[in-house]
Design a protein that fits this description.
The chain has 10 helices and 12 strands. By secondary structure, the chain is an alpha+beta fold. It folds into 3 domains: about 80 residues, Rossmann fold (3-Layer(aba) Sandwich); about 110 residues, ATP-grasp fold, B domain (D-amino Acid Aminotransferase, Chain A, domain 1, 2-Layer Sandwich), CATH 3.30.470.20; about 60 residues. Strands 10-9-8-11-12 form a 5-stranded antiparallel beta sheet. α1 crosses α10. It is globular, with a radius of gyration of 19 Å. The two termini are about 25 Å apart. Pathway: Cell wall biogenesis; peptidoglycan biosynthesis. GO terms for molecular function: ATP binding; D-alanine-D-alanine ligase activity; metal ion binding. Belongs to the D-alanine--D-alanine ligase family. It catalyses: 2 D-alanine + ATP = D-alanyl-D-alanine + ADP + phosphate + H(+).
């Protein structure tokens, strides 16, 4: 019987979501017959894993440190097979500017953007409104601000006392229309889900609060859009060098028939409201089967 460490928690802004994801995966792994050890990851993770004496790691961490190649490097040093993407793919995908450069090179359409500091974005509009301000390396929509058309000036939150998302930002053209997402498992794109919410955009609360959003699967789209979204999601997964499970997010402007990729998530959520388990279920894979697939897919790069 494989002894599996499910690591979750950590200290990023996404800690609470990670704990929920990890506990859900641990429960499913036990149900599938694995010997499971739950580890709330600390900065002594290497010692925690060595003491646990495990065969494989199921990574339930989200956000900086757990999703950006750092913990993946620790697992490589320990020579412990782990789920999801490796060091380089994780680092590239977490950096919105670098991943978009990869997407463009692969022929995947993206929105126009500009790299800015927080001071620059707070001093003057970096792009003509409407545009979106995004921290370069945060997940779960933390720090995302929409500057609407006709706005008198940049977003005031950038100079507020509660800003904790760093000084390296990306200003990105706002794409009106519909929010779409596609999960990829290995070499297979699963489906296209449309996400609708009554909030201004698909923010943290919309993603994780019960009733915060509605998921339409399969999305009611023209056939060529469904085909393009699935093709580009798989292409993004491959271009970044990902493995395991990913989820790519898109915007579709149906008035101009324009589809663009926003980002690829290498550690997609595994909470009760998460999109990847929902798409897996749509193609006939139970949550327990999905977790089993992730464990058996685990590997090291070397």
């Amino acid at each position: 019987m494989k002894r599996v460490a499910v690591i979750y928690g950590g200290w990023s802004s996404e800690r609470d979501v990670s704990v929920t994801s990890g506990k859900q995966m641990a429960k499913a792994a036990r149900s599938a017959g694995y010997d499971v050890v739950e580890i709330d990851a600390g900065r002594d993770l290497a010692a925690q894993l060595t003491e646990a004496n495990v065969d494989v790691v199921l990574n339930g961490l989200h956000g900086p440190w757990g999703e950006d190649g750092c913990v993946q490097g620790v697992l490589e040093v320990l020579d412990l097979p782990y789920s999801h993407s490796g060091v380089l793919a994780s680092a590239l995908a977490m950096d919105k500017l670098k991943s978009k450069a990869v997407f463009q090179q692969a022929g995947i359409p993206v929105a126009a953007d500009k790299q800015v500091t927080r001071a620059e974005a707070a001093a003057a509009h970096p792009l003509d409104p409407p545009y979106v301000i995004k921290p370069v390396a945060e997940g779960s929509s933390f720090g995302v601000l929409i500057v609407r058309e006709g706005a008198n000036g940049p977003a005031k939150e950038l100079t507020g006392p509660n800003w904790r998302y760093g000084d390296h930002l990306m200003a990105e053209e706002f794409i009106p229309g519909r929010e779409l997402t596609v999960a990829v498992l290995g070499d297979r794109a699963l489906a296209v889900t449309e996400i609708t919410t009554l909030r201004d955009y698909y923010d943290f609360d919309a993603k994780y609060e019960a009733g915060g959003s509605q998921h339409v699967i399969p999305a009611d789209l023209p056939a060529h859009v469904t085909e393009a979204a699935m093709k580009f999601a798989l292409k993004a997964h491959q271009a970044l060098g990902c493995r395991g499970a990913t989820r790519s997010d898109f915007r579709y402007d149906d008035k101009r028939d324009r589809l663009v990729i926003l980002e690829t998530n290498t550690q997609p959520g595994m909470t009760p409201t998460s999109l990847v388990p929902e798409q897996a279920a749509f193609v006939g894979m139970s949550f327990e089967q999905l977790v089993t697939w992730m464990i058996e897919d685990a590997s090291c790069q070397r």
